[in-house]
Amino acid sequence: MIQNAKLSARGFTTSAVHILEQLGPRAADRRMSAEVTEQSINMLALLALLRWERKVGLAALERMNVNVDSLARRVDQTLSTLCHDIRRQAGPPQYQTLPSGQRALVVDFDTPLEPLLASAEAEALWMDHTYIGTEHLLLGVIRRSCPRLREVLQEHGITYVRVKGIIIEVLRGANPELSRPDSPG
């Protein structure tokens, strides 16, 4: 699944890597297999970001007066609905035989995750940052949100332009604790 060394080499901060590390366990908790899609990965990433330590991405949402708990509940409901719909279409899980002879569900996280990673990297480049933090993941999630997630975000007043503006404010020093060079989000 997620390889910390590769993400670090790409410039992801420790906090951003931790968000991404949570995707596998969160998907496993939901017994997701065929449901691991680009849409569900974005929702899982947003849920992880909302529940992780307060870094720039979460601080921006709080500064916008977003009710983080309400947003998390709505994203969770939307993800559950998405998974239900995918399960209905996909049918029973497809097991594979491993080289050891055991049968297991093999879930590809890399393919549906890569667009989010690339989007976060692009956000960092556009902002002239040398790191990819939680703020870039958040912008990537918003930019790549499917119609279902976009509706939830809009219900909470979350738009790409608005979040990016608040992130820039936070990083410009409105909150010195979060904008220190040794503390990117």
What would you say about this model in short?
This protein is mostly helical and 185 residues long. The protein has helices spanning 4-9, 14-21, 23-29, 38-51, 56-63, 68-90, 110-126, 134-143, 147-155, 160-174, 176-179; strands at 95-97, 103-105.
Q: What characteristics describe this protein?
A:
single chain, mainly alpha, two-stranded antiparallel sheet, globular, 11 helices, 185 residues, Double Clp-N motif
Give the name of the CATH superfamily. Answer: Clp, N-terminal domain
Number of separate structural domains: 1
Beta-strand percent range? under 5%
Low-confidence stretches: 178-183
> How is the CATH topology named?
Double Clp-N motif
Output the structural class: mainly alpha
Our Rg estimate from Cα atoms comes to 17 Å
Give a structural overview.
The protein has 185 residues and is mainly alpha-helical. It has one domain (4-91, 104-173): Orthogonal Bundle (Double Clp-N motif), CATH 1.10.1780. 65% of the residues lie in helices and 3% in strands. The protein has 11 helices and 2 strands; from the N terminus they run ααααααββααααα. It has helices at residues 4-9, 14-21, 23-29, 38-51, 56-63, 68-90, 110-126, 134-143, 147-155, 160-174, 176-179; strands spanning 95-97, 103-105. The protein has a two-stranded antiparallel sheet. A hairpin with a 5-residue loop joins β1 and β2 (103-105). α5 crosses α8 (134-143), α6 runs antiparallel to α9 and α7 (110-126) crosses α8. The longest helix has 23 residues, at 68-90. The protein starts with a helix and ends in a 6-residue tail after the last helix. Residues 178-183 have low confidence and may be disordered.
